[in-house]
Amino acid sequence: MAGSRFAYVKKFELPDALLPSTFMVFRLDGHSFHRFSDEHRFVKPNDLRALELMDHAAITLMQEYKDISLAFGESDEYSFLLRKSTALYNRRQSKIVSTLTSLFTSSYVFHWPKYFPDVPLRYPPSFDGRIVLYPSQQEVRDYFAWRQADTHINNLYNTAFWALVQQGGQTTTEAHATLKGTVSKEKHEILFSRFEINYDKIDARYRKGSILVRVETPEEPAPESSNTPTPNVKSTEPLDETLKAKKKKAKNATKVELLHTDIIRDSFWEKYSYLLKD
Ligand code: ATP
Ligand code: ATP
Ligand code: MG
Ligand code: MG
Ligand code: MG
Ligand code: MG
After folding, report:
1. How many whole angstroms from 8 Cα to the centroid of ligand 2?
2. How far is ligand 4, taken at its centre, from the CA of residue 65, in Å?
3. What ipTM was predicted for this assembly?
4. Whose Cα sits closest to atom 17 in ligand 1?
5. What is the residue-averaged pLDDT of the chain?
6. Mean pLDDT across 14-40
7. Which of 36, 157, 181, 187 is 20 to 30 Å from the Cα of 122, by its Cα?
8. In this structure, which residue's CA is closest to atom 25 in ligand 1?
9. Can you tell me the mean pLDDT for 153-167?
10. Whole-angstrom Cα distance, residue 195 to residue 105?
């Protein structure tokens, strides 16, 4: 149809390449997960199954897209850092956002029964996605610090809120009223004095969120001369090529690790400084 008289309509499609040499942060967030979590009976304040399913879908994305070096997840959202130098889909914004959002969503649905064996999906969930560009490492660090600070604020509030409801016998309206205007220290105090909950002892997964880092796996040892006889080939070229390919593979082999640690302080970024390299 390329040469048809209709082809001019293609010209209405505008290019949408993202600025070169800038960090991309791709964030997605569950659409109306307040309702979705209600309808699928998520445990409050934190449903572990749902968080682990989010992590799984995020790992799927990092396995498929090697230019994602780091990710951070909390609640129904995940943020992914793409290398400054990434040429993924020629940096076309719509293509990246739609493909990554779609793969995350399909992985979430695909793996749902593993995490919720007794809860059939009542309707298809969806996620929104966006990309924000950051020019330097400082903004990238501050972006992730912002998300982790958000995790802390939300989790402290939700932990106190649901303690008042589930253990304190308050209605949700009463719990809202109890917490209205309280500062962090007062929420800690409510949790400790009324419910003997030491907030700092709560699982780091809930307090810190999920961090996925790409780490290089150590190079595999060179294959030993095994019992398998060396194939009798005239030219060594194909073998060399295979070895080269193997070596390259080992060199670039990476795996994804899941952490629940502080990413606001310097120590994380000192240890993982390579994640911010080009
Ligand atoms: P929007 O479409 O604007 O994002 P939303 O209803 O998804 O609306 P969010 O601000 O994204 O609103 O909040 C997501 C909500 O999903 C949380 O407030 C919480 O109620 C629920 N939720 C998500 N993950 C979990 C979880 N693991 N355990 C319990 N509840 C969860
Ligand atoms: P891109 O990721 O760039 O879209 P693509 O491989 O999806 O690459 P398309 O131009 O979208 O390329 O073409 C989709 C291809 O999928 C078709 O060329 C065809 O080979 C195959 N395909 C899609 N739907 C059908 C179908 N119903 N029956 C048979 N083949 C199909
Ligand atoms: Mg929202
Ligand atoms: Mg949401
Ligand atoms: Mg959200
Ligand atoms: Mg296609």
Report:
1. 22
2. 24
3. 0.94
4. 34
5. 92
6. 98
7. 157
8. 75
9. 98
10. 38
**Does the C-beta of 47 come closer than 6 Å to ligand 1?**
yes
pLDDT of residue 228: 46
Topology of domain 16-144+203-215+254-276 in CATH is Alpha-Beta Plaits (3.30.70)
Is 34 annotated in some ligand binding site? yes
75 is in an annotated binding site: yes
Helix (H, G, I), strand (E, B) or coil at 140: helix
Half-sphere exposure of 217 (CA within 13 A, CB side): 12
Confidence of residue 232 (pLDDT cuts 50, 70, 90): very low
Crossing angle of helices 137-166/184-195, nearest 10°?
30
Per-residue DSSP letter, 92: B
Buried b (16+ CB within 10 A) or exposed e, 80-103: bbbbbebebbebebeebbebbbee
pLDDT digits (tens, 9 = 90+) for 183-197: 999 999 999 999 999
For ligand 1, is residue 31 a contact (CB within 6 Å)?
A: yes
Question: Which amino acid is it at 229?
Answer: P
Ligand 1 within 6 A of CB of 73: no
Q: What is the dihedral of CA 179, 182, 185, 190, to 10 degrees?
A: -30
- Nearest bound ligand to CA 99? 2
Residue 37 exposed, middle or buried by CB count within 10 Å (0-12, 13-18, 19+): middle
What's the CA gap between 262 and 271, in Å, rounded? 12
Residue 79 alpha carbon to ligand 4 centre in Å = 13
> Residue 3: what pLDDT?
83
Q: Which two tokens stand for residue 113?
A: 């029964």
Binding site annotation covers 176?
Answer: no
